[in-house]
TrEMBL record, chain A:
Protein name: Ubiquitin conjugation factor E4 A
Protein EC: 2.3.2.27
Annotated InterPro entries: Ub_conjug_fac_E4_core, UBE4, Ubox_domain, Znf_RING/FYVE/PHD
Localization of this protein: Cytoplasm
UniProtKB/TrEMBL annotation, chain B:
InterPro entries named among the record's database cross-references: Ub_conjugating_enzyme, UBC, UBQ-conjugating_enzyme/RWD
Source organism: Leptidea sinapis
Domain of life: Eukaryota
Name of the protein described by the UniProt record: UBC core domain-containing protein
Lineage per the UniProt record: Eukaryota, Metazoa, Ecdysozoa, Arthropoda, Hexapoda
UBC core domain mapped to chain residues: 6-129
PROSITE patterns hit by this protein: UBC_2 (PS50127)
SMART domains referenced in this protein's UniProt entry, alphabetically: UBCc
Length: 507, 129
């Protein structure tokens, strides 16, 4: 290859980055003598202006060429002696990524936006798991970019935008494909997590979400967390199903019946095994990354997960997987060569227990754990404890015990409450769920009173009043303070009665 | 004992009220439904004075754990499927409140009433679906 070819290409792509960004941030102007950007205007992020029409005239490959060059440079790092030269391309490329990756109005094509996330991954410095690493100087330069780039604060919001954005792309993104697209995003998030200022960016998005949980357009962080949970549930469920299947196939090989099978049947079984093994590996790796991200976020922004709209889902998800991994069926997943399938149930159990410990400080979470009739039983945490002892999770045991105690206290109290409150007057009951309303709100058009959690849940999927189908959003509902006072008074009265009878019976 | 999930609680309540005060011609198999709250069998008699007078139909209700936020899956089952423009021969029912127009304010009872009234409408009033 021509000696100067790579450096020339890098310079060309570096200039392309600057040029593309300059075009993208321009506003539409009338009667320009020429559409080319004739002067450099400073880049301000986040970009709030609508994309100019000229951007439509630029073919996608111009953007994709940059991605290809950077990802290839990463893959062939061993062959590149002048890697430091790539660094000059990285700063403009990061501006390019931040301009286009999260913004569907500038980059319609979701696949291309996902490619930009891949490009971002290729721009990271060395990490421990790398098989081929940069030399130290190059790695240092790369790290500096993420510490000093003027627009680095946009990294986290852009990542979340693209993460959420590829979920809804019509039919073009295959279901499995989205997991592949998300893998590099996890790597980047993992890296960013090491920096205080980027962690802060996650926190401030989480705070913003907390303040706007009930907004008409759900905040980005809420949607992100929602999808993370969907992915985690799907991947772990698939992974466990595959592990159980692998176990069956492996057992079949060792059974006496195996020798009686025809050669063809044996081959068929072996093919099945290797196919399932591949799927299991994929699910296990991605599941692990997803869970790891959830562990970080629950530790960092527990308030989002404990919000009424999410708390039930996270609690039932944790219960479900903990029960499978430590419960009576746990041996169903014991297979040979767990390493080969990247199956590491011990670390998943540790991760799940860490989330319990973090979220368990919150009363609403504990209540949601105990309310989950599907997987929760008081035995669940005892089972988890005996597993933790064996997998060196000893330091978690005492904190998990605290959570277990809190959950069971709440469970008992709920049970008692349920008995006390079972015969509540009809007007105190939610007309949809038939539960006692703790926060009654009035729907403006049908004038019906329902519990806030009920209507919030309904509006997540359907923006209308369930009683007359007229349009409705959460900001239109009004607290029914009069009824709330009545209900509160009634609850206090019932509790008082019970306290009275129980003291008189013990005395 | 594990607490009932919210959707089970609501189904339990609906079951009680449907057994106590069923709409005319409608009976629910209470034993079966209380065994498994997510699968109900409802017997329905053809309304006197209509084409279906004297006939007996069986409806099956399937509920997900998202009920009542998600609609139940309702089909005619058994040997006698009503011959009706909005009912497929495999028992599937074409009724908007079972799909797009479902609302959590509806109930098993209101679905039954809608099906009864659907079976009352005479030819000519139909919009084919």
């Amino acid at each position: 290859m021509e000696t100067n070819m790579l450096p020339f290409m890098r310079r060309l792509q570096g200039a392309t980055c600057t040029w593309l960004v300059q075009i993208a941030i321009r506003e539409n102007a009338e009667n320009l003598p020429c559409y080319a950007p004739m002067n450099i205007i400073p880049v301000k992020m986040p970009i709030t202006t609508p994309p100019p029409d000229t951007l439509r005239c630029i073919p996608e490959f111009v953007l994709e060429n940059v991605v290809v060059l950077i990802t290839i440079a990463r893959r062939t790092v061993k062959l590149n002696m002048d890697d430091a030269d790539v660094v000059n391309l990285l700063a403009p490329a990061l501006t390019l990524v931040l301009t286009f990756m999260g913004d569907s109005s500038r980059t319609y094509n979701p696949h291309l936006r996902a490619r930009l996330a891949e490009c971002l991954e290729a721009m990271l410095p060395n990490n421990e798991d790398d098989s081929s690493s940069h030399n130290n100087i190059s790695s240092f330069y790369r790290e500096q970019i993420f510490k000093t780039h003027p627009h680095r604060f946009q990294l986290v919001p852009c990542l979340l935008d693209v993460f959420v954005g590829i979920e809804m792309t019509g039919q073009s993104v295959q279901f499995e494909q989205k997991f592949n697209y998300r893998r590099p995003m996890y790597v980047v998030m993992d890296f960013l997590w090491g920096f205080e200022e980027h962690r802060e960016a996650f926190t401030s998005l989480a705070r913003e979400a907390e303040a706007n949980m009930e907004a008409v357009h759900p905040p980005i962080f809420l949607r992100f967390v929602n999808l993370l949970m969907n992915d985690a549930i799907f991947l772990l469920d698939e992974a466990l199903g595959n592990m159980a299947q692998i176990r069956n196939l492996q057992n079949a090989q060792e059974s006496a019946a195996w020798t009686n099978l025809s050669a063809q049947e044996r081959e068929q079984n072996l093919t099945n095994l290797s196919h399932t093994g591949m799927l299991a590996r994929f699910d296990n790796i991605l599941g692990r990354d997803t869970i790891r991200t959830l562990v970080r976020l629950t530790a960092h922004a527990p308030f989002v997960f404990c919000h009424p709209t999410l708390v039930e889902r996270i609690a039932s998800m944790l219960n479900y997987f903990l029960l499978h991994l430590v419960g009576p069926n746990k041996k169903n997943f014991k297979v040979k060569d767990m390493k080969e399938y990247e199956f590491d149930p011990a670390s998943t159990v540790l991760d799940i227990c860490r989330m319990y410990v973090e979220l368990g400080k919150n009363e609403r979470f504990c209540a949601a754990v105990s309310d989950d009739g599907r997987s929760y039983s008081p035995k669940l945490f005892t089972l988890a404890e005996s597993v933790l002892v064996r997998i060196r999770g000893g330091d978690l045991i005492s904190s998990l015990r605290d959570v277990a105690a809190r959950v069971s206290t709440i469970a008992e109290q709920r049970q008692r409450d349920e008995e006390i409150l079972a015969n509540a007057p009809e007007e105190f009951l939610d007309p949809i769920m038939s539960t006692l309303m703790l926060d009654p709100v009035i729907l403006p058009s049908s004038r019906t009173t329902v519990d806030r959690t009920t209507i919030a849940r309904h509006l997540l999927s359907d923006q209308s009043d369930p009683f007359n189908r007229s349009p409705l959003s959460m900001d239109q509902v009004k607290s029914n303070t009069e009824l709330k006072e009545k209900i509160d008074a009634w609850i206090a009265e019932q509790r008082g009665k019970i306290a009275h009878t129980s003291t008189s019976s013990t005395s | 004992m594990a607490a009932m999930s919210p959707s089970e609680r609501r189904l339990q309540k609906e079951l009680m009220s449907l057994m106590k005060e069923p709409p005319p011609g409608v009976t629910v198999d209470g034993d079966q439904a209380s065994q498994n709250l997510t699968l109900w069998t409802v017997h329905m008699e053809g309304v006197p004075g209509t084409l279906y007078e004297g006939e007996k139909f069986v409806l099956q209700f399937k509920f997900t754990n998202k009920y009542p936020f998600d609609s139940p899956e309702v089909t005619f089952i058994g040997n006698n499927i009503p011959v009706h423009p909005h009912v497929y021969s495999n028992g599937h029912i074409c009724l908007s409140i079972l799909t797009d127009d479902w609302s959590p304010a509806l109930s098993v009872q209101s679905v039954c009433l809608s099906i009864v009234s659907m079976l009352k409408t005479t030819a000519g009033q139909f919009v084919l679906c």
